[in-house]
Amino acid sequence: MGGAIVPPADSASRKTKRVNQRVNYGSSVFFCTLEIQLGFDGMIAPSQNLARIGKQIMTSVRMDKWLWAARFFKTRALAARACELGRIQSNQQPAKAAREVRIGDMLRVANDGGDFQVEVLLLSDVRGPASVAQTLYRETKASQDLRRKVAAERRAMKQFEELPAGKPSKRDRREIIRFRGRA
């Protein structure tokens, strides 16, 4: 999946997609337009997409910042904790919160929403709206299918769950505690 798409002979036929992004850089705030170059087949060519901040080019971002900006986690602290617990992998390697994310990296993210396998398309260290966050990555087809299958299984299991009639008695509570292994 990774790798750059060879540009056509005439660069005028290349399509581009523009994404407006607010970027904090030091004490300044910039509003920049990211121009994403598309290949022949409409797929994004990751090696050619760089976020420009003034005259500087953003080539990497901390893992916890990117996960937070891409809206996989609500806070950076939660993203850093997930990295500590080994729920994030970058190119089949466990990732720490300070690891640098680069365009073209393959990430495996395990969170409450399910397991995601994504390819990094753009970099951002600023949390924006969900529509912008979705442009930062592309989820693999296998990952989408697996998440749909797990969600369908979870919905099917709800039909077979037997809910208790009311509040558990003292005897029931003791059995529950014994069953859970607390006593």
Describe this entry's structure for a reader.
The model is unreliable at 1-11 and 44-50 (pLDDT under 50). The chain contains five helices and eleven strands; from the N terminus they run βββββααβββββαβαα. The chain has helices at 63-69, 76-84, 130-133, 141-160, 170-180; strands at 15-25, 28-38, 51-53, 56-58, 61-62, 88-90, 93-94, 100-101, 106-111, 114-120, 137-139. The chain has one domain (11-153): Roll (Structural Genomics Hypothetical 15.5 Kd Protein In mrcA-pckA Intergenic Region, Chain A). The N and C termini lie far apart (51 Å). The radius of gyration is 22 Å and the shape is elongated. The chain has 183 residues and is of the alpha+beta class.
What would you say about this model in short?
The chain is of the alpha+beta class.
Characteristic terms for this protein:
183 residues, 5 helices, five-stranded antiparallel β-sheet, single chain, two-stranded antiparallel ribbon, alpha+beta, Structural Genomics Hypothetical 15.5 Kd Protein In mrcA-pckA Intergenic Region, Chain A, elongated
